[in-house]
C-alpha cells in the first residue's frame, strides 16, 4: 500500500461534493444502493481514479498498460479545450489517500466519432463516449486487468466508481441490470451511480468470467435517473491492437475478492 503526500491529496479533492445523497443525480430511489468496496481486492483493485487538474473520473485496467474511461472526461471546462495526456494520472486501488499503484497517461485514443467540444449531447452520441488511455507504467502486470465482454439487455451487472459524494473510496452497486438497449452501442441501466463515476466499469458475467461489458457515461434525470452505458463493442478492435487482454486476470498485489461476484451476476 502506498500513500500520496498531503499536498497532492488536497489537489485531488477538487471534484465538487454534494451535501446530501438526495441531491445527487443517478440515485434511483430513496435508498442509495452503492456499497463501499475494498480497494485492494480484485476486481475493484483494477478500477481506479483518473485524476486531472480540475477533478476526477473513474477508469478500469483492461491490459498491462491500457485503461478504458469515458470520452467526456477529456474536456477541460476551464480552458474549453481537451486535456493533454500529461494531465492525467490513473491511481489504481485508491482509498482515502492510499493506493496500490499509479501511472501517468502517455497517450489518449478517443472514439473517432466523439467530438471533443464540451457540448452536452443526446443519447445517440453515447455509443461513442469512450476513450482508451495508454499508461507509462505496466500497472496491470501487478494489479491485474478486466477483459472486454459482451453486454446483453437484462444482464445482471455491477457498476463501480468514485462518486463525487464519496470520492475517496470505491463504491459499487452490485446485482442491478442493463434494463434495455436504447440504441446500437447504448444501454440503459438501473444501477445507482453519480457524477465522478463517469468512465467507471459496468461489469458482467461474460464468456465464463467477470468482464467489462460497458462504460458508465451518463444519467437521464427525466427518466427516473436512469443510467446510460456505452457498450465496449465499438472500442474492442482498437483496444486489442493497443494491448487489451483477452481474459480477466488478478495480479499478485491484488487480494482475492471478499464477495462471490459469479453468484451475484449470473
UniProtKB/TrEMBL annotation:
Keywords: Disulfide bond, Hydrolase, Protease, Signal. Residues 27-240 form the Peptidase S1 domain. The keyword Hydrolase applies. GO terms for biological process: proteolysis. PROSITE patterns: TRYPSIN_DOM (PS50240), TRYPSIN_SER (PS00135). One of its GO terms (molecular function) is serine-type endopeptidase activity. Pfam families: Trypsin. Residues 1-19 form the signal peptide. This is Protease ydgD. It comes from Paramagnetospirillum magneticum (strain ATCC 700264 / AMB-1) (Magnetospirillum magneticum).
Amino acid at each position: 500500500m502506498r500513500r500520496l503526500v498531503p499536498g497532492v491529496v488536497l489537489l485531488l479533492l477538487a471534484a465538487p461534493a454534494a451535501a446530501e445523497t438526495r441531491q445527487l443525480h443517478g440515485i434511483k430511489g430513496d435508498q442509495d444502493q452503492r456499497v463501499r468496496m475494498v480497494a485492494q481486492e480484485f476486481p475493484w483493485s483494477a478500477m481506479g481514479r483518473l485524476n486531472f487538474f480540475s477533478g476526477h473520473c473513474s477508469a478500469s485496467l483492461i491490459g498491462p498498460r491500457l485503461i478504458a474511461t469515458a470520452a467526456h472526461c477529456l474536456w477541460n471546462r476551464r480552458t474549453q479545450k481537451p486535456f493533454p495526456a500529461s494531465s492525467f494520472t490513473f491511481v489504481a486501488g485508491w482509498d482515502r489517500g492510499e493506493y496500490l499503484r499509479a501511472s501517468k497517461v502517455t497517450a489518449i485514443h478517443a472514439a473517432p466519432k466523439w467530438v471533443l467540444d464540451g457540448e452536452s449531447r443526446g443519447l445517440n452520441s453515447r455509443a461513442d463516449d469512450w476513450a482508451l488511455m495508454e499508461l507509462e507504467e505496466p500497472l496491470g502486470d501487478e494489479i491485474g486487468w478486466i477483459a472486454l465482454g459482451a453486454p446483453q439487455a437484462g444482464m445482471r451487472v455491477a457498476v463501480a466508481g468514485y462518486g463525487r459524494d464519496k470520492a475517496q473510496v470505491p463504491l459499487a452497486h452490485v446485482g442491478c441490470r442493463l434494463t434495455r438497449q436504447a440504441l446500437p452501442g447504448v444501454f440503459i441501466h438501473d444501477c445507482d451511480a453519480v457524477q465522478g463515476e463517469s468512465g467507471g466499469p459496468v461489469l458482467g458475467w461474460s464468456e465464463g468470467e467477470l468482464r467489462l461489458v460497458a462504460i458508465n457515461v451518463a444519467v437521464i434525470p427525466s427518466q427516473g435517473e436512469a443510467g446510460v452505458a456505452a457498450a465496449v463493442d465499438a472500442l474492442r478492435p482498437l483496444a486489442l491492437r493497443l494491448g487489451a487482454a483477452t481474459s480477466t486476470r488478478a495480479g499478485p498485489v491484488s487480494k482475492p475478492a471478499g464477495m462471490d461476484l459469479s453468484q451475484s451476476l449470473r
